[in-house]
Design goal:
By secondary structure, this protein is of the alpha+beta class. It is 23% helix and 30% strand. It folds into two domains: 30-115, Immunoglobulins (Immunoglobulin-like, Sandwich); 124-239, 60s Ribosomal Protein L30, Chain: A, CATH 3.30.1330.60. Strand 2 and strand 3 (61-65) form a beta hairpin.
Amino acid sequence: MYRAFSLFFLCFFALNICAQPADRTKAKPFVLDIQFVDATTGEPVVGADVEIRNLSDTTDYVRAVTVTSGKTFKRLRDNQQYLIKAKHRKYFTTEPFLIHTADSVEEKLRGAILMREIVLGVAQRIEGVAFYPNSEDYMASSLTEFAELINMLRNYPQIKIEIACHTDSRGNANYNLEISQKRAEKLRDYLREQGIADERIVPKGYGETRLINHCEEGVKCSNAEHEQNRRVEYMIIAVE
């Protein structure tokens, strides 16, 4: 009787296991649905190269290219952390951003990521650059602000720039033009020392021809006002 009862119990237990309903809550793939748009115009960025990297699995790495809508669609694994960034020849690379494909039946991430266009012809002042009086030689300690420019040129080899030097209106105009050109060439040489090819840098001295205030020759101005005109600038002139 004991043996019969045991056999009945085992058969009943086995039937109960088989009768359990299937788990229908298994997570489905996480759908990435992101659009990349121009930060200024809001227009879709077509042809951006999107990198999607799983932080916990180096083999889970995909690349996609945005279509005419500026979008990219990818199915990702559930409950993972992915680092995403996009780059385009005519845009600055986006800051990497992190997403977490959380446990769920189904998830879809939608959103718009702004991309900043590489704009040509806009002068950017480099603060703090100083030269010795009546000399093209710069004070090495004053070039700390060049680090940002150097990083940009290293990260974006397609960019070509003009490096421009300006003087105030005091002194002879021809002399100011000549020394500003020499100073620009010195700064080109410094960038070369940092690994930037000469053909990517156009040195240009403007002397006193592009003053940014009223301090023309013969106008009485303070030293601070004259100093506004003594400046170094760079300008992106081509994306090749």
